[in-house]
Amino acid sequence: MRLTDDDIATAGELALGLLDKAEAAQARARMASEPDFAAEHAKWNDRMLAMEVIEEEAPSPALWTKIDAAISEKPSQDNYIGNVRVWQGLTAASFAIMLVLATMLWRQPEVTSAPQQPQILVAAIGAEDGRESVAANYNPQTGALQIIPISLETGKLYPELWIIPEDGIARSLGMIDPLKPALHSVPEEMRPHLHKGALFAITPEPAGGAPGGKATGPVIAKGAIDTI
Hints:
This protein has 228 residues and is an alpha+beta fold. It has two domains: 57 residues, no CATH class; 168 residues, no CATH class. 32% of the residues lie in helices and 22% in strands. A five-stranded antiparallel sheet has the order 6-3-2-1-9, with helices on one face. It has a four-stranded antiparallel sheet with strand order 5-4-7-8, with no helix packed on it. α1 packs across α3 and α1 packs antiparallel against α5. It is elongated, with a radius of gyration of 19 Å.
């Protein structure tokens, strides 16, 4: 039996421990009678093991210090690109939840004949207080960047996405939809800046984007790029 997106989501939520007792019991009962569902649950368990490796390979403190210092040297952006150290506290659990949602919405078919699958970069872009959260998937080979807003509120302004590589300079990746997932094509000249350890940031800006490519609003969410 072919699994639906809801089935895949349930298997992932069971592996992450996100279901309540009744839902978890029902899902475990399905594992006993539905081999495809049990196999999907096993895949999610394997993904969780992979995340443990990601946590061990987090960006080095030296990289965060370099980004922080470079940003602090730019007076025009002190109020909104800010100190990055406080954003290193995004937990593995919040990252995992976002990755579940991202994978549900951008699940690629498995191709066993392909010699090697492209390495996908991911990021959990969030606020320290947890109010704003966005998941991102990026394919370096194609330049395809998918943004999945989970909770994103900018009032009468509009969210603009920025990339901050090692040089600490924030570069705009354009406006993003705060309500639904969307696929963006990253311009060729911007692609070298999207790599493991670089930082995504989101600021609320006027319609059409920040004037002159300089952020005018406070950073409401940040997250470092990592690999899966």
